[in-house]
Amino acid sequence: MEDLFRVLGIVLLVLVFPLVYVEYRKTIRFFKSLGANLERQLPFLLKGSLQVANRRFLIKQAYYHIVISTVSPVSGYLSIERKFLGNGFDTFYDDEAWAKKILSASKLHLLTQAHSSLNRLSAVKIEGDTLKVELFARRIEPELEENARQALQYLPDVLESLKGLPDSSIGVKKQQLRNWLLYYLPAGLFILLSIPGLYWLSAGYGDALCQEHLYGLGVRVLSPIFLAHFVSAILILRRRFHPRAHLLSLVVIYFGGYLLIPLTILDPFNARFDASIPKRLETKIVDKYRLSRGGHRLELEFEGLRCSHLVSERLYRRAEIGQHLSLEVKDGAFGVRWVYRYQLQE
Q1: Is the separation of the CB atoms in 83 and 167 below 8 Å?
Q2: 58-72, 207-221, 229-243, 297-311: which range is least confident on average?
Q3: How many CA atoms lie within 13 A of 181 on its CB side?
């Protein structure tokens, strides 16, 4: 069975790699068809530049988007984004008087009105002194190329219409504060705590006896933290929180935190700072199984425990159903029992 999983993994790799390579070559051809000179050729992160009407534009691949950007005659924060559900666009800004003046006096509407036929248009943004146009690009198709060409035709007129208009007195300060508060600070804390966590995991700290208890700990610990982060963001940003723009991203971040933080932070910290004395637990293996499709999530089920236990490939191979096992279990600094040592009884 293990050999079968390996063969399936190799077959999957052989099938996926050509598809990724073909898409990569299509993206390069797409950039060159627009007349762009490639400056970075990393897969999924392509970047180039081109000249249109004596103006220099940057074009880059960012996740599932193609972003066309250039220097803006006005400076501030204004984001016109396609609605997540339904038709039309949502408009976000921090300086209301400035945003209304820009929207009424410029030709930004050329990019967002229905007759422009920019079906792939995701957003039009003024961020600082940069004007950006974002196009959905899950696949490189003729429609995307046509949309990109059309956007590049409109942009010189849009830029010309912005000349002489005032800069925002607020600028991008609120946008920077929003990004730091909602994204950069939580991501920084996660990385900062994950570094020692991953190191301690590699050193043998962290092997929760029941992963369900570990995730339960995560819910108890993280829920008030996430709630405090969300409420603090609302209180600090107030009407500039822009929930329609950021609520979905925060839900994804919180959900991901419930899945990752127990494994990368709580599990190793629970073991590393545990000062309890190991207790011997005599049990028997009643079942063993693989949960992940690739066969890398290996679990044993022990007699007397209402949970399964994640184990290494080495122990999984040695373990047999019905075999007796001695475990040295510690209480855990956070109350989640973890396995200090295994001893299979041959």
Answers
A1: no
A2: 297-311
A3: 21
Task: Quote the CA–CA distance of 163 and 149 in Å, as a whole number.
Answer: 23
In this structure, are residues 300 and 288 in contact, taking their beta carbons and an 8 Å threshold?
Answer: yes
The total number of residues shown for the chain amounts to: 346
pLDDT (tens digit per residue) in 310-339:
777 777 777 778 788 888 889 999 999 998
Please give the single-letter amino acid code of residue 14.
Answer: V
State pTM to two decimals. Answer: 0.77
Amino acid at the residue 272: R
CA distance 316 to 344: 11
- The C-alpha angle 226, 232, 237, rounded to 5 degrees, equals 130
The answer to whether residues 124 and 132 touch, using CB atoms and an 8 Å cutoff, is: yes
Type of residue numbered 181: L
Residues 285/304, Cβ–Cβ less than 8 Å: no
Six-digit token pair at 1? 């069975």
Q: What is the DSSP letter of 240?
A: G
Alpha carbon 276 to chain centroid, angstroms: 37
- Residue type at position 119: N
Question: Phi and psi (nearest 5°) for 325?
Answer: -145, 135
More confident residue, 25 or 219: 219
* 161: its two tokens: 């219409």
